[in-house]
Input
Amino acid sequence: MRKKTKISSLAIIVALTAIFGVNRFALASVTMNIGKDYDYTGRAQIETSLLRSSNKADFYVDNEFYNRLNSNDKTVLNDRLNNLGVEFDNHIYPVLAQTYGYTGRLSQSGQKLNVVIHPLKTGAEGYTRSIDFFDTAHFIDSNNHLTVYLDYNALVKPSTTNLELAAFLAHEFTHIVSLETKDFKYGVSEDTWLAEARSEYSETLLGYPNIDWEHSLLKQRLADFSANNTLDFINWQNSSQNYASVNLFTQYLVEHYGIAVLADTLRTNSLGIDAINIALARNGYSEKFADIYRNWAIANIINDCAADHNKYCYTDDHLGEFVLMPIGYYLPTAGEAYMTANNNLSPWIIHYQKIAGGHDTVEFDFEKPSATGLNKLVYIVVKKDQSREVKTLDLTGTTKASLSLSDFGDANAYLILVLYKEDGVGDYNLTWKASVSVPADQKQAALIASLLKQIDALKQQLAYLLAIKSGSSTVNTPTTVPTNTCGKFNTDLKYGMMNNADVRCLQQFLASQPGIYPLGLITGNYLTYTELAVSDFQDENGISPTGYFGPLTRAAVNGMRGY
Output
């Protein structure tokens, strides 16, 4: 945890007096070009007033909206700008400049950052425009000055804290640092995700989450991150998921490899992944981006610092409790069954899948379309005591591979697959199949028991029919004749259930389907022939033929029965 620097009230008053000793409401109107794709009404130009000026920043506010405020609201806004100016001069600028070795225009005497404040579209807190680095002879819409743009609504909203505003400003100023220190210096255009990684980390670098976690951007990013089980930031789409993923990746990177690695990505003309690989090497690490990405992918699903020398966890106290929830697949806990899944994998997009249930030994078979690509497949075996084993299945030079786990569903409680494609472009197909079989002696014993029960059921039905034919006045209804009225199926049914009313209804339905359940016994016992009939029904209706009457099969049957 970083130490929280304390600043006395007297020091703040002195700083405010020195920096903002001018007339509080002296206004100087200035025309500003803005990004019409960000402005909430699509404007490209606005009239602004210079409301506050600190040593390193001038703050301009959209006149159209500032003039609507009453005197009290104007005072509140000006106070906020005072605080923001002090924070930028005394904390944001010096920390970011020192960390990233910034020697751009703002480091020169008398140079200031323009902060233009106008209402932005929903979801945007700020932006920068690279054209502002150039004069109007090159770009007519340039402001010809180092400029960042912040959301007016965030500044006037009472619930927005001063640290939140400072985090927004720090984020955008880091983009200025990146553009001047790398893009313009080397004549390159940084990969968006890496530029955003540096800006997203600025809040943590400045220590804001440790001061006010509840209102921190990192807390919101963690919430967005935890709501997904598919992670992606390399393929940047400017989504909340992209920002959350790149933020958490950068937290992991700096926690385990240091801020110097992130800073050194600015000191090379290489971009994105290559820049990180160069920065790692400069700082004495043998790992590559792919190694760190793999470990980070595992950390998100187990987050356990006791595993493999702290590789698979976040060390920050605020990040130490969360894990992502994988998509779940369930194998029947009795009898033979199998399920398959086809995965279309894109480069660097992570999918987490959990396979549970099953019994005895479960075989996992993996198949890919070609021997090249997707050389490593990460899987995690979770034990009964919740301890974990991280393993890798080698797919190098082959199209098929398999693994076997004994005592599945018990000592080996379940399996988690961490699926993604590390390199190349385009999608890649991976199919897996999980199958569980029954030992021959158990299978024979179960079959004999099932046949005996079915023979007994047939005897009861035969006796019932003979009694009716003979005109007997005392006819005992056999247990195999249903006496309940069948309605909608609301619960799962599985192998081993006995004398169950819902199973009888299921058997009636199966018997009504041509070729599905030719034996047609209505016993209420979910045994081998019922399981086989369910499997055949699933196969004919595009459902994985497990023999387990679960949610998908229930929905299909209910739909066919008008529910």
Q: What stands out?
A: The chain has a mean pLDDT of 87. Residues 327-436 form a domain with the Jelly Rolls fold (CATH 2.60.120.380). DSSP finds 16 helices and 16 strands in the chain. The longest strand covers residues 45-53.
